[in-house]
Amino acid sequence: MIKKSIVVAVIALIVVGFCGFMAQEKITVKGSDTMVILSQRWAESYMNGHQDVSIQVTGGGSGTGISALINGTTDICNSSRPMKQSEIQKLKERFGSMGVEIPCAKDGVTIYLNEKNSVTNLTMDQLKKIYTGKITNWKEVGGKDDKIILYSRENNSGTYVFVKDNVLKGQDYAPACQNLPGTAAVVNAVSKDVNGIGYGGHGYSKGVRMCKINGIEPNEANIGSGKYPISRNLYMYLRNKPSGKIKKFVDWILSKDGQAVVTKVGYFPL
Questions:
Q1: 187 and 245 housed in the same domain
Q2: DSSP for 57-82, written as a single string
Q3: What CATH number is attached to the domain comprising 139?
Q4: Total count of domains within the chain
Q5: Which domain holds residue 28?
Q6: d(CA 223, CA 110)
Q7: Per residue in 131-150, pLDDT tens?
């Protein structure tokens, strides 16, 4: 009789656990490599207080996230650049919606230099000429007589597109530019290469020097005010106006608690 009671109790626990698992609502988030650590922290913090929600975060780049949004394979797309009109049109053709753009944090595209590099400041024009291959030696910008080694993100990266549009003014990157699959890889390469230069989100700038641009540091005050010349918003995109548990998650991200996570990760609140 006792054994039978134990078996019944175990079955009841399994059923309750299974039902609890089944009751969880899954939210998928995909996109920007710049935002992946931030988004993972948001998800972890939110799930700690909301056991009924499971949030899956993956990176791959802003372009990858936008494609997933258009294909219907993610609920939320993270992007470090605004969606293009051609992408919005594809979304409209498939879902009859122009999508919903939600700024969720601020960032400044940070120019990474090796800590042993004597250069501390570049103008926007110098930066453009470096990445288009017109300036190839550090002595041309006040540094040592050494070849500049260029590191960049891949073309599915929102930061790659943002830099091309806002720094290179639509011109192509120099053929010598080494495209790396993630911001962490760019930082790692520059930290080991005294002649290297790279770029990416402010939150990744560990073990490298952050270069001033036009004499302006990429700090909270300058990025928050837009004074830093390559400041930008980070975005979430949805197919439709959020509702249900997705709306609650988005509202939390924009709340004081969600924006506190932004600061902890190394980006800047709205």
A1: no
A2: EEEE-HHHHHHHHHHT--SEEEESSP
A3: 3.40.190.10
A4: 2
A5: 24-106+233-265
A6: 10
A7: 999 999 999 999 999 999 99
Distance of CA 124 to the CA centre of its chain: 22
Place of tokens 């998800």: 43
- Is 23 a residue whose pLDDT tops 70? no
List all residues 6 or more positions away from 267 whose beta carbon is below 8 Å from its beta carbon. Answer: 38, 105, 106, 107, 201, 202, 203, 234
Distance set, CA 44 to CA 140, 201, 255 (Å): 46, 21, 16
Q: Which residues pair with 112 in a beta bridge?
A: 198, 210
**Are both 47 and 126 inside the same structural domain?**
no
Tell me, yes or no, whether 204 and 223 share the same domain: yes
Closest of 138, 140, 134 to residue 176, by C-alpha: 134
Res 67 pLDDT > 70 = yes
* Same domain membership, residue 210 and residue 131: yes
Q: Is residue 8 scored above 90 in pLDDT?
A: no
Both structure tokens of 7: 């078996």
Give yes or no: residues 99 and 165 share one domain. Answer: no
